[in-house]
Amino acid sequence: MGIVQSQSIKNTFITFFGFGIGAINALFLYTNFLGKMHYGIVSTILSGANLMMPFMAFGAQSTLLRFFSHYKTEQKREEFLTFMLFFPFFLIVPISLLFYFFYSPISNGWVIENPSLKPFFWLIPVVGLFMAYFEVFYAWVKVHMKSVVGNLISEVLYRLIIMILLIAVHLDWITKNTCVYGIALSYLAQLIGMKWYAFSVKRPVFRFVVPENLKEIVHYSFFIIVSGGVAVMLVDFDKVMIPLYKEISQNALYAVAIFIATVIAVPSRAMTQIVAPITAKLIVENKYDELNDLYKKSAINLQLIGGFLMLLIFLNIKQLYLLIPNNYSGGISVVFMIGLSKFYDVLLGNNNSIIVNTKHYKSVLLFGVVTVFLMIGLNMILIPRYGIFGSALATLITVAIYNTIKLIFVVKKMNLYPFTIKTIYSLGILAVCFLIFYFWDFTLDGFFFGTIAISPIINIILKSILITIFYLFVNYKLAISEEFNQVSNSVLKKLKLIK
Predict the structure, then answer these.
(1) Cβ-based neighbours of 190, under 8 Å, separated by 6 or more
(2) Which of 12, 82, 97, 310 has the least C-beta neighbours within 10 A?
């Protein structure tokens, strides 16, 4: 796993850095500077844009990854890259026209319940277009095995711009409404940055030739639209449905909880950037033994790292919410449910990359569509009754069902299995850590001053240090991950703690 390990580690650090900036934005700047209503508006716009992105891209980002390795000559690859640059317009044009001519009927359901959304609703397809072409250029970079700089643009650039905009609101340099438009434009800046880098990696040589396997490409792209739509809906559709039944400010509470829980999936996002093209290449070359090895390694490594992040979040969540304005309280149960759904995603390693790159990919299409209908139905039932708690519960149920279906599919159809006995050991370590650390926090009780609560930040730091020491030590001693132990030994040797 040389290239995987190297670029995954770099991508993980970059992604964590980006998430660090995002955490400051989501937990402190949005909540203190922008306010619940405008934060809810931003969350709704971005979630709606994410839902439109797979359609605007016409699946080009995944299609490019899947078929690029099929072309053996440089000329054929250049022809394919040129075609994929313009391929999304086959859906962008009709979707844009549809949205333009039927704007009022489309927007009424949300605007009637939340009139404050009306001036911004048109941003949804525009930002969706920015996101779509960003993903196309990102795929352009990935097929050339250059994911690190692309990841920097993906995870850091727009978050820095948003941070500047939120600070500008606080300093009264711009209004809150202007900030919402500026956040939309930050995705245009991200697109321009990725386009510049993609063309620096491989300058396009425009060869306007229709690929010989056009039918296969179109069929696969339609599958990606549906399967990608399913994946996005499982993440963002709840944030689009909440304003249909509740005040849009509830989306601000939900967005904070979602952001906290999403940190669990950071390592998966980082590793996927390089694992996805390698998975596609191994399948094309029929190297299934290597693929099975990659599957197991990705699963256990992501379980180890994702599980560690889940522990840090779950075991510090009460203290973390003390740092957020009081009117954002009530999201702890959402963090637990969404966190568990993210951890299930992590458990499956590069499962998605395997499915979308095999000839059996259409088999999961029906299950995905059924899952979406289940999710919509559950949200319609649970949101009016239980608010954001009901939405999180609906997400957890649907993600659990969908991921189980995908796991069974890969096991049965391809005889690939991500789990080993060490998976059980790792889950046991997580359970033990949770039971040891969840039910107490640091106080000065019984020391010198009676019972005095320690500040949340100090509490989180001290508790996290203990959790880290215990968790990493046990995983190291039980050799849960070969790669983790290799990295650990390298660090320990540099520190001269072992020979």
Answers:
(1) 130, 134, 153, 154, 157, 158
(2) 97
